[in-house]
Amino acid sequence: MTRPGSPTAPRALLDAVPGLPRDDAGPVFAAPWQAAAFAMTLALHERGVFTWPEWATALADTIREAQAQGDPDRGDTYYGHWLTALERIAAAKGCVTRDGLVERRAAWDAAARRTPHGRPIELD
């Protein structure tokens, strides 16, 4: 699990998000992108883009939808749901467009394909 440099949040915020993978020190991440998604969520919340109850509802709705579609809820898909909820709430709040998200995913995919293993992925 990722710990060094992990973003932190007040315990009250963490307690409001059910299922958040964490230990006594706070959230834990299996990959750097998970920590980045968590940090982006905190940054948007701190900027007043959405309230924490709005975020918790968006995440819970996303998880419920995934479970209804057959997600076995073993915990390994949690941050995938987190990212989906982040994309949805950011689009709903006007931070990004759906087309912008599609373009960014395509850019990341192309960058990842051309990047040799073990090298940092760089977007053009």
Describe this structure in words.
This protein is mainly alpha-helical and 124 residues long. The protein has a domain at 31-67 and 77-112. It has five helices and two strands. The protein has helices spanning 11-15, 32-46, 52-68, 78-92, 98-114; strands at 22-23, 26-27. Strand 1 and strand 2 form a beta hairpin. Helix 2 (32-46) packs parallel to helix 4. It starts with 10 loop residues before the first helix and ends in a 10-residue tail after the last helix. The model is unreliable at 1-6 (pLDDT under 50).
Helix proportion range: 55-70%
How far is the first residue's CA from the last residue's CA? 30 Å
Number of helices, where a helix is a run of at least 4 consecutive DSSP H or I residues: 5
- Major pleated sheet: 2 strands, antiparallel
Order of helices and strands: HEEHHHH
Strand order of the largest sheet: 1-2
Radius of gyration: 15 Å
List keywords for this structure.
two-stranded antiparallel ribbon; 3% strand; mainly alpha; 124 residues; globular
Task: Please specify the SSE layout and strand pairing.
Blueprint: H1 11-15, E1 22-23, E2 26-27, H2 32-46, H3 52-68, H4 78-92, H5 98-114
Antiparallel strand pairs: 1-2
